[in-house]
Amino acid sequence: MFLTLVCTAVGYAIFYWLLGSTIPTLANTFAYIVPVIAVFLGLVILGESINSQTIIATVVISAGVAMMIINPARKKLTCN
Predict the structure, then answer these.
(1) Could you list the mean pLDDT of each consecutive 10-residue stretch along the chain, which spans 80 residues?
(2) Quick one: pLDDT at residue 3?
(3) Distance (Å, rounded) from C-alpha 22 to C-alpha 11?
(4) Nearest Cα to 61, choosing from 40, 28, 32, 25?
(5) Cα separation of 4 and 66, whole Å?
(6) How far is C-alpha 60 from the geometric centre of its chain's CA atoms?
(7) Domain layout of the chain by residue ranges
(8) Three-class SS of residue 1?
(9) Residue 72's pLDDT is what?
(10) Residues near 73 by beta carbon (within 8 Å), at least 6 away in sequence
């Protein structure tokens, strides 16, 4: 329980810091990359097994985050 509370508190602190220091699109990439990090840590620390579906999913998520970082959303132009 302690680990859950600490990780949640740290995660929210980092997220709100990102919201204040960058655009919301980039700040939201944090929410997408956290599960990928969790899978990696589970593999390294706990010795959990990973199947091909998990690898494909982490590649797709990582590619999506990379695209969001490389080409962040632009402000919409409004026609007046």
Answers:
(1) 72 83 80 84 88 94 86 58
(2) 64
(3) 16
(4) 32
(5) 27
(6) 12
(7) 2-70
(8) coil
(9) 63
(10) 23, 25
Q: What is the pLDDT, as a whole number, of residue 79?
A: 58
Contact yes or no for 23/72 (Cβ under 8 A):
yes
Q: Cα Rg for the chain, rounded, in angstroms?
A: 16
Element (H, E) at 60: helix 52-70
At 57 the pLDDT is 93
* pLDDT value of residue 80: 53
Please report the pLDDT score of residue 33 as a whole number.
Answer: 82
Residues contacting residue 24 through CB under 8 Å, at least 6 positions apart: none
- The tokens 């990439």 sit on which residue? 29
Supply φ then ψ for residue 59, to 5 degrees. Answer: -65, -45
